[in-house]
Amino acid sequence: MKRINTSSFGIVQGSRVMFTDFADGGAMWTGQGPRESRFIVTFKEEFLDPPMVMVGISMWDMDHKHNSRADITADAITERGFHIVFRTWGDTRVARIRADWTAIGSVRSEDDWQLY
Length: 116
Fold this sequence. Notes:
Blueprint: E1 9-20, H1 21-24, H2 27-30, E2 35-42, E3 52-62, E4 71-75, E5 81-88, E6 94-106
């Protein structure tokens, strides 16, 4: 369990279409074997520590003639942002994916102050 040791915490959410490979013949639609797509998310405001990040697929468009294989995760999480990573493999044909995410963590309070 991650405990948030602050009186202030922040929650930020977002959504991102990762790719539309059917439109331009990209690797997720035409390729074979292991494939990966990354998108870097930068938070508008920094967290005090790396937040907890949840990522999920909110829209998928896959070819019905092949097995649907998908893995989505958050990677390289810092106070400033993270990477959304989508992976597939085998003969799966992915036309497009939209990922939704939520980050929850400690943030500065207006009551916080620092000595210089």
